[in-house]
Specification:
- By secondary structure, the chain is mainly α.
- The chain has ten helices and two strands; from the N terminus they run βααααβαααααα.
- It has a two-stranded antiparallel sheet.
- Helix 1 runs antiparallel to helix 4 and helix 8 packs across helix 9.
- The longest helix is centred in the middle third of the chain and has 26 residues.
Length: 201
């Protein structure tokens, strides 16, 4: 824990008020575990607003502790969520199938529909996805084989993203259909389970 001095009277008053709110809210146990004595908490709880304000404005030193590990973990989670959202939008914008987006990003069909309406308005093309020419399909199969080997530890959606980076002119649904064109089960290797309800995010 890193201890940081508190110089601002407003912030000092807010922190003292927060401790009192925790006491009144029945969170004494967490305060006791933090190292505060029952006598101190009892005294602080029944102090007047004037006492708290005067203490906050006094020259008495006050400090608070901040965990670098906790803050870093929180920032890392924010970065992960941001990257998750960017990748989800990428899949929708570049024409991944509804089934793929719902499976990879744990969206309901309604959530997918709303997201698609924002990012890619207009109707979906009807019928089965048209495959590219044979030479392009062969190149896709070779690239997918290499990606499966080199990125075997990565999530499947990352592998699909890497494949699309090599064929950005094609919709992701076209790549999906090409990958499984020789498979009896069209979800083979793609971690898509159409019979299972999508998980809620």
């Amino acid at each position: 824990m890193n201890k940081i001095p508190i110089q601002c009277p407003v912030l000092r008053r807010m922190l003292l008020a927060h401790i009192i709110e925790q006491i009144d809210g029945g969170h004494m146990d967490s305060l006791l575990r933090a190292g505060y004595s029952p006598e101190f908490l009892d005294d602080l709880r029944y102090r007047t607003t004037r006492d708290i304000t005067n203490l906050a404005n006094s020259p008495q030193e006050m400090w608070f502790s901040l965990s670098e590990q906790v803050i870093s973990k929180g920032l890392h989670l924010l970065d992960m969520r941001r990257e998750h959202a960017k990748l989800r939008e990428y899949f929708v914008i570049h024409g991944a199938s509804r089934r793929m987006v719902c499976a990879y990003f744990k969206l309901s069909h309604e959530e997918y529909r709303d997201l698609r309406a924002q990012l890619r308005p207009g109707g979906e093309p009807g019928g089965r996805t048209a495959l590219p020419p044979v030479t392009v399909r062969d190149a896709i199969h070779r690239a997918w084989f290499d990606i499966q080997q080199s990125m075997s530890e990565q999530p499947c959606r990352d592998r699909i993203y890497a494949l699309h980076q090599q064929f950005p002119e094609l919709r992701i649904s076209v790549l999906q259909q090409t990958i499984v064109e020789f498979a009896e089960d069209d979800e083979l290797g793609l971690e898509i389970k159409p019979t299972a309800p999508p998980l809620q995010g």
